[in-house]
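thought: fold this chain, then report.
action: predict
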Amino acid sequence: MVLALLGSSAALGLWLGIQYLRRVRSKPLLIGLHLILGGASMEGTVMLRGTLADGGGSLAGVVSAVTLGNAVAVLLFTAMLSGLLTPLIAQHSPRKITSVALATHAAVGALGFLLFIAWAL
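observation:
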């Protein structure tokens, strides 16, 4: 379920990024849906991190699962925070700075998504 939410958020984010590069104004509804999907997947990741840490297995396996889960949670939180700050940066900055902020958001989000897949496997 969390993978579906996170994948949907990533796919929608990719679509919004392509629209940004085409200089097409994004619909606020799609941006809001991206935010909701990202927040729900981040919440699911934190809840899943707790259940995987409580599972049986070797101590090394539990420690590595918790460490990787923490990294995923931090990356998703950073992506969400940078995504929320990007419109504030865009109001008072030229397009080049806005593009860097958006690229940072996309890169951190993509890294969090890929690390989540590795962690879930």
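thought: worth noting. Residues 16 and 26 are 7 Å apart (CA to CA).
final: tokens above.
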